Hints:
Layout: H1 2-11, E1 22-24, H2 25-39, E2 59-61, H3 80-91, E3 94-105, E4 108-118, E5 124-135, E6 142-153, E7 160-175, E8 178-198, E9 201-212, E10 230-243
Antiparallel strand pairs: 1-2, 3-4, 3-10, 4-5, 5-6, 6-7, 7-8, 8-9, 9-10
Amino acid sequence: AFTKNLLSGLGDWMADTDSDGIITVQELGTYLKKKVTIDSGNQQTPKTRNLSTDEGEFVFVLDGLSNNNNNSVLESPINANNTQAIENMDKNTTNLAYVSIGSITSKQLGIKTQIGYFRDKGNNEIGFTSAFAEATNLNIDLIQPIGIYYRRYLTPFGKVFFNIGLDMTVFHVKVFADENINWGFKPYIGLGGIGGKIFDKQIYWNFDMGYVYVSESFIPDIEIEDIPHGIQFDLTFGIHRRYFS
């Protein structure tokens, strides 16, 4: 229980309780005391103590944020091995994964998944979106947006972001037992954030505004007016998880 929660506290940044990009020993100790006690069924009960003001404190700083805070960090001498390690760390990709369940639009309910990754120090993210939605109050059996997105965080590995994207939306309709499809395109812009926790996972929300363009209806007995198109607002809530490599 201790090792598992130590890895999640540091590797997944779960011990950063105030989301400032820094895990103090006090934060890590408090996190481990609570989690290990629960996971072990009170068989393991780590103890913590408060540091005095003159003792100082060891901290873990999230890469990319150390230049944006006021905490002084003791730097070790740089040698060839350290330089190579830093170069390798800069080349590593930080992988992300999102699973979101919520409202796709005001007339559609479904499930959306997003998988993305960082190519830099945590400011810029690109990824892939796939969703399946049931169109309530419409003659559409299934709506399936598939697309790509770009996301910009206000701070490296931060909690607030802006995003743009492009979806290809496929509409599925059964007419007389035959499967028929129509398609359209949807460019969109939006904003979102990450905050709070449920089941030890961070809560994710995203609000997008886009325009679904459908040129014509290829489905028998379905007019283009019956296919969701035009301006759409999407609100999604779900679970967010970051995997660091």
